[in-house]
Every structure is written in structure tokens, then in C-alpha cells.
Design goal:
The chain is of the alpha/beta class. Helix content is 40%, strand content 14%. It has helices at residues 42-55, 77-82, 91-99, 118-131, 146-151, 159-177, 235-244, 255-271, 293-304, 309-320, 336-340, 345-359, 365-375, 384-396, 412-427; strands at residues 13-18, 59-62, 106-112, 136-141, 185-188, 193-195, 205-206, 211-212, 227-230, 247-250, 280-290, 378-383, 402-406. Helix 7 packs across helix 8 (255-271) and helix 12 packs across helix 13. It is globular. The two termini are 16 Å apart. Bound molecules: flavin mononucleotide.
Length: 449
């Protein structure tokens, strides 16, 4: 595609950010009395998927990690005891299940390019795309932490290399998806031709990291390629997204920062030879919506009563591959620490900034835990009208193309969004009314749909 003036879609994408576990964001969420603790059962996922689909969400997205957090106190004990990302079920099994119980919602799973083989992943998502009739979405991650490398018995791959390898990974996957032409299958009993051999070609890809002969043993997926999602925040990650993504997740501090990131990403699409608005950009936000603002604020206060600063530091240590238990909890944050966290400096700097903005210059590590719980994700709290006003402002002023929505308690928080917020957004014409073309809800709100 050479044009640089891709059309900006006129409706938002609404994606639910879920986990094959208890919710990821709310550290005490599994203790919240209304949380359904059935995360080891099929019914839990089926029921949640149906709630989201009926509520008009475009995508049910599952995050993933391939290790328990173990950096804090150099131990998994804290994560296990508190339920801090200690459980992550395999996602393809869950999405295969959900494909049979839903008909429209996009089904998104995170898969790492650093700890899988491209043939394997191409095959999984092609299969899911068939079984879901074109609703497979792959969140392409390169994986952040050392614990994951240790689970696979391999050396940790440095940041820039991970993305270079990921480029090769996707060259293989997309090549394999295209190894069958769309009309290759004939299934002609009279002639005895199952598929046309001229339309199924080997790939013969040879890269420095990955090679694959092909073709794939799965015919061309209904979407051509399963939809590609990416969440890189570093310049290299954002260029990678610019080259490959249909949708990108964004992590930002507020609307101003989001607008800047949005404009920056459009330039990156063009530099990658794609039009502006080539992919939808979705900041992650946490929504707490109530019948009135007062009720929403009460829910927020109750939810925040579960915050445990140390538990947050288990996550921060995991993200930064640095043991924050070695830092005094109640002394002012020291910028020298930033030099020690190496490659994740940007992330930790962001947390320092958020914490100081909330607690002042004398803010401590304990405060950082609280700030992260409350602000690491942008939060919209209020009545449906208030939350819709905020979303509308973000969307219409080019801060985003939709949102990836984090819940508090599950499923209650998504039920609230479905019951209160989505009808208000539909009334304003900001989200699809479900009558879009195609079988995949998310496809109908993508550029060019
Ligand atoms: C909303 C959102 C969801 C993410 N989900 C995952 C995930 O499930 N698994 C994972 O390993 N990384 C996840 N990430 C991390 C990104 O893939 C990426 O590594 C991170 O944002 C840092 O960017 P960089 O890789 O360009 O340095 C997520 C990031 C965001 C903003």
C-alpha cells in the first residue's frame, strides 16, 4: 500500500483485556467478593465470552506470560501466596473452546515469538481462524523477562535482537499462511482432486534465526492472515508494530501523551510504507462505571481497599527484571535506582513520574506500589455519561481509535460496562451496533471495512 492518507475509522474498537486466570490488574481482585473464581473451568470462560459478545465488545483479548513472577525477593513465594500472576492457562485451548460458543466476537491470544517456533504458531492461529470462522487475533509479543527464558532453558535474548528475530518470525508465519492460495481446495469427488498442487507452494524461507520449508498443513485462513495485534512501546517495538500490526495497544499517562503517541505512530506507519491509520491504536484503560457517579466512586474506593503495595512490587520487579525488595520501602525514591534497572529504565521512570505526581517529591517505593495500582492504567470512573464523555474526547481528538478495557472484578465489571456504558456509546454512534459486515466483530470496525 503506498497511499499515506488512510481513512480514520469513525467508530471505536472496544476490546476486553482478560486473563486465563483471575484478572491481571486488580491484585486483590480474586479476593473481591463478587469475583468468579472459576478460572480453571470451561464454564467460566464461556460465560464471560457470552457476556462480552452480547454486550457488544469487539474483541476478547487474553494476555500471557510464560513464567511466574520470581524477581521479587528472588522467589516465587510472594506471587504464589498472593495470586499475583501465578496462574496462566494455555490460551489456544481456551480460544478453541470459545470459538464454539460465540459467533461474532474477535478471539485474541498472546503468543511469544521468543519462545515458540513460527511453524507451530502459524499453524495454531490458522486453525483457530478456521474454527472461529475468521475471528482469530494474535497478540505478537517478544517477551520481557528473564524468568521466561529460564523456563525454556535458553539464554535471555536482548531487546533489539528480540524484535529482529520477531521480524523473521512473522515473515515465516505470513509466508506459511500464504502457502495455500484461497481457492486451492477443490474437494472434487468426481475428478478425484482434493486440492490443486499448483496453488499450494513451499516457502523455502531461510533466515539467520528461523527457516521453514513449508507449505503449512492448514489451508489459507478465512481472514487471509489472522489479525495481528502488537503492544510495543519502545521505538523499536513501535516500528515493528508499524510494519505488521492491524491493532496496537498503547500504554500512556494521559490524553496529552496519548495524542502525541498517536501522531507519532501515524508517522511510523508511513515510514513503514503503509498509510496513516493503517492500524487501530488502543490505550489500555480501567473503567469503573456505575448507575451514578457516587456509586462508581464507591466501587472504586472499595476496590482500592484491596491494594497491597508489596504485591504491586512483585509485578514491577517482574516487569523490570529487578528485585525491588532490595530497596527501602519507606524512603524517598532515588533516581540512581534507574541506572540499575537497565533495559526497563523507561518503564520504571514512568512509574517514578506517576508516583511523584500523586504523592509529591518525597514519594516512596510503598507509594509507587499504590500509584501503580491506581494509575499505571488510565482509569475512567463515573456514570455511563461521564465515562462516555471521556472516551468520546479521547477518540474525537485523535488520542486513540478505541480502548482495551481492564476490569476490576470479573465478570461484574464487564457486566456493568455491557449494561451501562455500551448502550450509551451505541446511542452516540461511537461503537458498532453489531450489524457490521463480516463474521468477525472486530473486522467490521477496522480501516477499510
Ligand atoms: C495493553 C498491553 C498488553 C500487553 N500484554 C502483554 C502480554 O500479554 N504478554 C507480554 O509478554 N507482554 C505484553 N505486553 C508488553 C508488550 O508486548 C511490550 O513488550 C511492552 O509494552 C514493552 O515494549 P517494548 O517491547 O517495545 O519494549 C503488553 C503491553 C500492553 C501495553
Amino acid at each position: 500500500v503506498s497511499s499515506t492518507d488512510g481513512k480514520r475509522p469513525d467508530q471505536m474498537v472496544m476490546a476486553a483485556f482478560v486473563s486465563a486466570s483471575t484478572t491481571k490488574t486488580s491484585l486483590g481482585a480474586w479476593m473481591h467478593p463478587s469475583t468468579d473464581l472459576g478460572f480453571l473451568t470451561a464454564d467460566y470462560y464461556i460465560s464471560l465470552a457470552k457476556t462480552l459478545e452480547k454486550g457488544g465488545f469487539d474483541l476478547m483479548f487474553f494476555d500471557d506470560r510464560l513464567a511466574m513472577p520470581a524477581a521479587y525477593q528472588n522467589s516465587i513465594a510472594g506471587a504464589v501466596e498472593r495470586g499475583a500472576r501465578a496462574v496462566k492457562l494455555d490460551l489456544i485451548a481456551i480460544l478453541g473452546l470459545l470459538a464454539g460458543h460465540t459467533s461474532r466476537i474477535g478471539l485474541g491470544a498472546t503468543y511469544s515469538t521468543t519462545y515458540s517456533q513460527p511453524y507451530h504458531v502459524a499453524r495454531k492461529f490458522a486453525t483457530l481462524d478456521h474454527l472461529s470462522n475468521g475471528r482469530a487475533v494474535w497478540n505478537v509479543v517478544t517477551s520481557l523477562n528473564v524468568d521466561e527464558a529460564e523456563n525454556f532453558g535458553v539464554d535471555y535474548t536482548e531487546h533489539g535482537d528480540r524484535y529482529d528475530f520477531a521480524d523473521q518470525f512473522l515473515e515465516v508465519c505470513t509466508g506459511l499462511w500464504e502457502s495455500w492460495q484461497q481457492d486451492a481446495l477443490e474437494l472434487d469427488r468426481e475428478s478425484g482432486v482434493f486440492a490443486d498442487p499448483d496453488k499450494v507452494r513451499p516457502l523455502n524461507y531461510k533466515g539467520s534465526r528461523y527457516s521453514s520449508k513449508g507449505p503449512l498443513t492448514v489451508p489459507r485462513p478465512p481472514q487471509g492472515w489472522p489479525m495481528l495485534l502488537q503492544a510495543g512501546q519502545s521505538p523499536r517495538g513501535r516500528d515493528f508494530g508499524a510494519r505488521w500490526a492491524d491493532m496496537m495497544f498503547v500504554s500512556s499517562n494521559g490524553i496529552e501523551a496519548a495524542r502525541k503517541q498517536y501522531a507519532d505512530q501515524q508517522e511510523r506507519f508511513v515510514a513503514a510504507g503503509r498509510p496513516r491509520h493503517a492500524a487501530r491504536l488502543l490505550p489500555s484503560v480501567q473503567v469503573i462505571v456505575g448507575e451514578t457517579e457516587e456509586l462508581a466512586r464507591a466501587k472504586e474506593a472499595y476496590y482500592d481497599s484491596f491494594i497491597d503495595s508489596e504485591e504491586e512490587l512483585i509485578y514491577v520487579s517482574e516487569q523490570a527484571s529487578f528485585d525491588f525488595s532490595t530497596v527501602p520501602l519507606d524512603e524517598p525514591l532515588d533516581d540512581e535506582l534507574l541506572d540499575k534497572v537497565g533495559g526497563t529504565r523507561g518503564l520504571v521512570e514512568k512509574y517514578f513520574g506517576q508516583t511523584r505526581a500523586m504523592f509529591g517529591e518525597q514519594a516512596t517505593l510503598r507509594d509507587l506500589g499504590v500509584a501503580r495500582a491506581r494509575r499505571a492504567n488510565i482509569r475512567f470512573v463515573g456514570s455511563a455519561t461521564q465515562v462516555a464523555d471521556e472516551m468520546e474526547e479521547w477518540f474525537t481528538t485523535e488520542a486513540c481509535d478505541g480502548f482495551v478495557l481492564q476490569a476490576t472484578d470479573v465478570p461484574g465489571s464487564y457486566e456493568d460496562m455491557a449494561r451501562l456504558l455500551m448502550p450509551e456509546l451505541r446511542r452516540r454512534g461511537l461503537v458498532s451496533d453489531g450489524s457490521g459486515s463480516g463474521t468477525c466483530a472486530i473486522a467490521s470496525v477496522l480501516p477499510g471495512a
